[in-house]
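step 3/5: co-fold with nicotinamide-adenine-dinucleotide
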Amino acid sequence: SDSSTVGIHDSVTDVFPAPVFRDELADAAPDVRIVSDGDALAPCDALVTFRYEDRFLSADLDWIHSIQAGVDRFPFDALRERGITLTNSTGIHGDVVGETAVGLMLAFARRLHVHRSHQERGEWHKPAWDDAFPLRRESACVVGLGTLGRGIATRASALGMDVTGVKRTPVPVDGVDRVSPPERLHEAVADARFVALAVPLTDDTEGMFSTAEFAAMRDDAYLINVARGPVVDQAALVDALDAGEIAGAGLDVFEAEPLPEDSTLWNREEVIVTPHAAGFNDEYYERVATIVRENLRRFDAGESLTNRVV
Ligand code: NAD
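step 4/5: write tokens
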């Protein structure tokens, strides 16, 4: 880019060090600078950020890039009104989030979380003979079959699992044996040992999993949520766990993050809590930089941007 000044909002530090990302992007624009709280945004044409702040709206930016795939915290209408383009980082998390989601399934099936808890207490503890089970004979229903959903589905399928999915346009997907529309969600989840959520948080998906959905699931089923916390009604989830409507949950995302210290989700053997880190990996900054570099090129060439949301 010969014209753009690119700001890197230092909230990216939640995911990778801002200076490492700045150096990675240094060849893509003449001026790539880190913007901290209190620094003026005025010189920036484009801003790469983790967090959303209202001051972005009045800063005369052309373009904001979210280093996350989920952009539910950004005010789409207000951005549109001010002519600010918003792009996201979907497309880069399928392998790593797929590994995390299937890793959670493996932990539950092979009891790794239980072994680790006993290790912390220095206890040589064998589980009951029939606690562990082979994943190969089990089924997973993946709700949402975009980047994340496909990443989960291909990995579950590679382990020999029977994989089904829920998708708004029910066309065939690689590694997925049956695809159902959202209207048939309850039937789709009814047979699955694992239900993995991979939808964005939207008006349609907020509270998508609540009392009725947990009732529709098997009582030995595990919920895996690597999408967004509010896709699940968390109080209903706790009730379902207490009532034995489902067996457990692997949760990377929550209604409130960080998960409050007094949450009852912390201390349950059949709940694994991860700190919204399903997509974390040491290449994250390079992957985001690839998207931003390509969009800087397109921006200068007057071409339409990739990963555009607004
Ligand atoms: P994506 O856009 O590639 O895929 C989302 C898919 O969900 C699309 O195929 C879309 O058609 C589908 N969808 C939307 N509404 C639906 C509905 N009501 N029913 C069924 N399907 C529906 O995005 P992605 O990269 O796969 O990410 C998905 C979401 O996962 C993000 O929006 C983000 O919130 C979350 N995410 C979390 C992490 C993490 O670290 N935990 C990492 C990346 C993404």
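step 5/5: annotate
Residues 284-301 form the longest helix (18 residues).
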